[in-house]
Design goal:
Chain lengths: 273, 333
């Protein structure tokens, strides 16, 4: 199936999950739909029946608040049954607001706190280098998240150890909790900052899932360097009243709004065929 | 009555001599790790530009390919170690305790303790051992922080040989362990063959008037205090509480039942460390006894070498002995 369909499916699933929970981190989950679809339905070398397979590609959702998009992808790939998905955030259900590696098969790291994923990725990539394992490590971060100093410590380290099996993906939706990132703390020149730290950089339309997949297949962009894919996205993509709205970083939602969102996502699916 | 375990210094007069052999606990962990490394290829060591100061270099010189210096960047130090553990390694992190548990506290908590990863944290320069460095470098709040972190075993060995045993025990334990070590050379108390079990206090000296419960370098000073007190006719029990968490509550409650009071001794804030742990145990068990926590009284200790600081804050043998006499005079219990 076309990756765009998968991204559309993820959007529907995550709106359903957040809808049942009467709220959630819509913006950053919707902006990451194509990226996660490209990873789980094309790029990642994983075995759903063997989640701990040592040579699997790793994926760290450093922006852990986008978890429902990941849960939907893992469920579709067969890591766990659908009934679990339908009880997102219910007491006792393994699918929580932020992913817990000990509760959810296929989740490679427990995340949620900003700026933690890339250092974890550096460590996993270092282990792969020591053991001469073939796996790659993908870390998805929000652009606001890359304001954390820990990210840049890891950026420095990955470059030093020439971890070219480490791939950072930045969901560059230009919004964070409090509003427009550029007005909060400017990050420009964004790509040049990564380049200056010794990474190979590519920029892309993060809502073209085929292009995202193609770019990720082409990593490392330069041998001997870690790669960063800066995916330009729209926060809240796919739901008109959420797009580019900082208030929908995390928001409560009414049944009527859920209905409207699902209708828009269904219309987008129609348009794909 | 339980027999005390055999340890190196058995005669009171040995405490008075100046010829007691000394060694650095910060060297013991690293040398031990290097010895284990050949048969344990999963062991790797990381530091943040303090390979030499922590003596992680004792491992690093022999296994450079398995040693990572991430530079002056503690958050990434801890996160990278967590990543290595996620991929099956047993990472051992070494840096000054203040940077490990405070600069990178959230990474220790969220990246290591929360997923219960098999990472060993070696915090050096703890207590008064780097008192010359002042408040920026000496660490007197780390036990309180470490105790509060779920899933973390907290060890504070007393001397070189015990640190060797504690390192082996930490590696045998699957899960995160914090190992608190010093900087300066400290008196050797234990024989090489002494016993060590996580969560089981070592009874070093039997007595029924008072119990001193100590950890780290304070164990030696407590033994000195017991020696001083014995000359005054007081029979003092000394417990080496090398494991701060899980605490040997049985040893604490036994001491409370069999002696007339308990004095805890640590090179740490009185808040939240060994003394806090013992106090919580006594209070929750409903035990009323003469009790006092010796430690640093809610301040940043002044600068100075360890001997000077021990004297200043009453944590040398003489100071502990004086506090013990005062405690035993209390009649309000």
């Amino acid at each position: 199936m076309d990756l765009a369909y998968h991204a559309n499916d993820l959007r529907r699933e995550l709106v359903l999950m957040f809808g049942r929970a009467q709220g959630g981190h819509f913006g950053g989950a919707l902006s990451a739909a194509e990226i996660i679809a490209a990873l789980y339905f094309d790029v990642l070398n994983i075995r759903p029946k063997e989640p701990e397979w040592p040579d699997r590609d790793r994926f760290i959702l450093s922006k852990g608040h986008a978890a429902p998009a990941l849960y939907a992808a893992l469920c579709t790939r067969g890591f766990f049954p659908r009934s679990i998905l339908e009880e997102f955030e219910e007491p006792g259900n393994p699918l929580t607001m932020h992913p817990n590696m000990h509760k959810v098969p296929g989740v490679d790291a427990s995340t949620g706190s900003m700026g933690h994923g890339l250092p974890l990725g550096v460590g996993i990539a270092l282990a792969g280098m020591l053991d001469q394992r073939p796996y790659r490590v993908f870390v998805l971060m929000g652009d606001g998240e890359t304001q954390e100093g820990s990210v840049w410590e890891a950026v420095m380290c990955a470059s030093h150890y020439r971890l070219d099996r480490l791939v950072a993906i930045v969901d560059r939706n230009r919004l964070s909790c409090d509003g427009e990132i550029a007005n909060i703390q400017c990050q420009e020149p964004y790509a040049i900052r990564w380049e200056a730290f010794g990474w190979s950089v590519r920029e892309i339309d993060g809502h073209n899932a085929d292009e995202v997949a193609q770019a990720l297949h082409q990593t490392p962009f330069q041998p001997g360097k870690p790669s960063v894919l800066i995916a330009h996205t729209i926060k809240g993509r796919g739901v008109s009243f959420m797009e580019n709205q900082p208030n929908f970083h995390r928001a409560n939602i009414s049944p009527e709004q859920v209905e409207q969102a699902l209708a828009e996502i269904a219309a987008q699916r129609e348009a794909l065929s | 009555m339980t027999e005390p375990i055999a340890f190196h210094l058995t005669k009171d007069d040995q405490y008075k001599g100046l010829d007691i052999p000394k060694a650095m606990t910060r060297e013991a962990w690293s040398v031990t790790l290097a010895e284990m490394a050949e048969t344990r290829p999963e062991i790797v060591v990381l530091s943040a530009d303090l390979l030499k100061a922590t003596l992680a270099s004792r491992f690093g010189d022999r296994y450079p390919q398995r040693t990572f210096n991430v530079g002056v960047a503690e958050q990434n130090l801890v996160g990278t170690a967590a990543g290595l553990a996620l991929a099956g390694k047993i990472p051992v992190i070494a840096t000054f305790s203040v940077f490990l548990l405070m600069r990178a506290c959230e990474q220790v908590r969220t990246d290591i303790c929360y997923p219960k990863l098999n990472v060993k944290l070696v915090g050096t320069a703890a207590g008064f051992s780097f008192g010359l460095g002042g408040a920026t470098h000496m660490t007197t709040e780390d036990l309180a922080l470490a105790r509060a972190l779920p899933n973390l075993v907290v060890l504070a060995p007393a001397d070189y040989h015990q640190t060797v045993h504690a390192t082996r025990a930490a590696l045998a334990h699957v899960g995160p362990v914090f190992l608190r070590v010093g900087r300066s050379a400290e008196p050797i108390i234990y024989d090489e063959e002494s016993t060590f079990e996580i969560g089981k206090a070592n009874l070093l000296r039997q007595g029924d008037d008072l119990t001193l419960i100590a950890c780290g370098a304070s164990v030696f000073e407590s033994l000195r205090a017991a020696s001083i007190l014995s000359e005054r006719g007081l029979s003092v029990r000394v417990l080496d509480m090398h494991t701060i968490k899980p605490l040997d509550e049985e040893a604490v409650l036994t001491a409370a039942a069999e002696t007339r009071g308990i004095l805890t001794v640590e090179e740490h804030s009185r808040i939240g460390g060994l003394g806090g742990a013992v106090a919580e145990t006594l209070a929750e068990a409903g035990v009323a006894t003469r009790f006092r926590r010796l430690g640093i009284p809610g301040i940043f200790a002044t600068e100075g070498n360890a001997d000077y600081l021990r004297h200043t804050y009453g944590l040398d043998g003489e100071g502990i002995a004086a506090a013990a006499v005062t405690l035993l005079k209390r009649n309000d219990v």
